[in-house]
UniProtKB/TrEMBL annotation:
Alphabetical keyword list: Membrane, Transmembrane, Transmembrane helix
KW Transmembrane (keyword) present: yes
Record's protein name: Membrane protein
Spans traversing the lipid bilayer: 12-33
Amino acid sequence: MFNTVLVRCLALLLCWLGFHVSALYFLLAVILLNTHHKEIFGW
């Protein structure tokens, strides 16, 4: 439960940083989505 919330919050934070700071944060968000898709999407 806690891991799921943590991963979802981190993905949202990285997307927000990608818009406002640097596009390199989108790369980190994509890597996070690829490695933790079960926690984020539930499948």
